TrEMBL record, chain A:
Alphabetic keyword roster: Lipoyl, Transferase
Family stated for the protein in its record: Belongs to the 2-oxoacid dehydrogenase family.
GO BP annotations listed: acylglycerol catabolic process
Source organism of this protein record: Neorhizobium lilium
Cellular compartments per GO CC: membrane
Span of domain Peripheral subunit-binding (PSBD): 125-162
Name of the protein: Acetoin dehydrogenase dihydrolipoyllysine-residue acetyltransferase subunit
Signal peptide range: none
GO MF term (any one): acyltransferase activity
Domain Lipoyl-binding stretches: 3-79
Cofactor(s) for this UniProt protein: (R)-lipoate
InterPro entries assigned: 2-oxoA_DH_lipoyl-BS, AB_hydrolase_1, AB_hydrolase_fold, AB_hydrolase_sf, Biotin_lipoyl, E3-bd_dom_sf, PSBD, Single_hybrid_motif
TrEMBL record, chain B:
Pfam families: Transket_pyr (PF02779), Transketolase_C (PF02780)
GO MF term list: oxidoreductase activity
UniProt name for this protein: Alpha-ketoacid dehydrogenase subunit beta
InterPro entries to which the protein is assigned, alphabetical: THDP-binding, Transketo_C/PFOR_II, Transketolase-like_Pyr-bd, Transketolase_C
UniProt superkingdom: Bacteria
SUPFAM superfamilies: Thiamin diphosphate-binding fold (THDP-binding) (SSF52518), TK C-terminal domain-like (SSF52922)
Reported cofactor(s): thiamine diphosphate
All copies of domain Transketolase-like pyrimidine-binding, residue ranges: 4-179
The keyword Oxidoreductase is assigned to this record: yes
Keywords: Oxidoreductase, Thiamine pyrophosphate
Amino acid sequence: MANHPISIESAGGEYMEAVLVVSWAAKPGDRVKAGDLIVTVETAKAATEVEASHDGWLTRIDFAEGQEAPVGAVLGLISDTEEMATEPIASQPDPVSAAGTSGLENAFAAPVAASTPRATDDRIIASPLARRIARQAGIDLAGVTGTGPNGRIKQRDVARALDPHPAPARPKGLSSTSGAAGIMATGSRLIPIVLLHGFGADKSAWRQVLPLLGKDIETLALDLPGHGSSTDQPADSIEQLAYWVSDKLEAEGIEHVHLVGHSLGGATALALTSLGRVAVQSVTLLAPAGLGPEINGSFITGLTRSETPDALERWLTLMLGENAALPQGYAAAVIRQIEKIGNRGALEALVGRLFAHDTQAFDMVPALKALSVPTRIIWGRSDRVIPASHAARAPDFAAVHLLPGVGHVPQMEAPALTARLIMETVRSTG
Amino acid sequence: MALMRYAEALNAALREEMAADPSVFLFGEDIGRYGGVFKVTKGLMEEFGESRVRDTPISEQAMTAMAVTAAMTGTRPVLEIMYADFIPLSLDALVNQASIYNYIWDGKVKMPFVLRTQGGGGSGAGAQHSKALDSMLAHIPGIKVVAPSTPADAKGMLKAAIRDDQPVVFLEHKLLYNVRGEVPDGDIIVPLGKAATLREGKDVSLFATSKMVVEAVKAADLLQADGISAEVIDLRSLRPLDVNAIVTSISKTHHAVVVNEGWRFCGYAAELSATIMDFAFDELDAPVARVTLPDMPIPYSEPLEIAMLPNADKIRAAALATLK
């Protein structure tokens, strides 16, 4: 049921504070038509006739004839349906006396009924978090049903709209189910989504995205050599990384894959498609490396050389869009991981080979252009590690999504949208 | 590590700081010969003598002005105000002297004093001996206000407060003095302005200080039985406030309950709520819930007093409401 408030804005001049309700032309329950005279009010200058703004029923009168109403106040309601509105709001508490200026009676006064459902307009009531997630995922909240108090749309409602058939029990973090060689697998469908993380990261980079992917699909998040729990030495080149991944997939008996790669993992995914050892069904790239020469070299060296969480945090923050903050403890966890593996030297050597002199020493554009499967590229417009302008080198057949306010890690900064786009790529293969 | 009561941990902090720094001295009502009504200063007059542990007459106004001038002239006084209810008598020295000299004399004057006091209800002490007036104190720029909840923090933060060159109001709670806890041995300092995560959770964040932390932890246990995972953040310091810890927790749970034993209107819970909206609005999935004392004096009747005070049940109810 939609309601349309009857009000008179700045009646009779800007210095007016109130109008006098002279007469109502309809009584509650009456059918009204847009343009009908509905109420006459007296302003400083003259009597003013207020017309019905919509077809419907006059369901409520808040200011009776002879009463003064503040300018801007709701005088009454027109509803789309005949159902009568309940509580009139004529007796709104005076906010000054409700503030408890003095006296015991104020101390015991019931709080202002701010939780009364706002039936007076069509404003969507949603939590700030729900609004943010919907904005990032490109969802119109008008189509989402709220299950919170007063029908407020909460995070869970947006999550349901994003994935109407959630699995009853999603994996709780990756480490608990990690298998041999840092391979994480969930789900049961035949062709898995293989996710390749970026330089210096590990498979936990997909922690936010994995639970949002469809329940009926298998996912494999790999730890690239020299990263995470993978004890293998870092590779010498992108091709070697690709060979390593294809070996792992072969060992798992996997012949068909959907590839998702972030940054260095994106370049690796493209190299993997050129090898021809696995049948790639679709490719989703997040801020992939290899599409242009520029890269933020100080970020890469800062990442490998920082020895304290505080120092590392300064560099890691560059992964995110402006004004974004890392989760607490994130930098400390990364440092612990690096120290546990003892691969700092190996990572520095890899940097020397792949990213010397602030330059990406490899070109993946030919591999990208040679693709014959559904291809999607996701890039944060505020990427401070690899410029989003590299997305312009994408071939015409690739879908390109440039996300405002997002930095180098869409999977962390906009997980819902990233998951949705991955699934759209996967499903587009039929 | 040693098992200690909260009052004993404070006593140890005072003893260690007095032994380490001869400019540290104590004064207050009944703190010397009697050892303090809550026994925090027990044995210190015997150990350090009457010139460093001084009994004073009842005059909070004079005592606080004395702390200000003693601090300005090169000592590190630790003043005890027996009941926080009488802090209003100290306010002129705090608002018009201690908090501003640093600014108006261009940083040339240090103000290294600690005002220890205890507040809070739950002991049937009536309207004039049960209040938590931390909001009033945290309102003053230029003064640090801290309120530890555990014996370990009581010791580490009191030592930090004594060494701080700014005035520090150190809030204790009459119902915490007998709480036992492990206290690390040696010269352990807990920095002022850092919150502590006492319980990790993913559904809702409970923010509290002092005795309310104990209630929040109990509430987290109750919520666990409800199938809800509550994170408990002991803010420890009201000012400076660890905003990062608050934002980090809310970014995880998206639901916040702020707890303060003081009055609701213009209270510290309102400040926390506004801070959350300033820094984490887009993380909120529900309005911030406040659990506070109602805006009334605390009654002498103990059943009525207990009914008024914030407690674990009320925190649990607020958490459940935000999760609806």
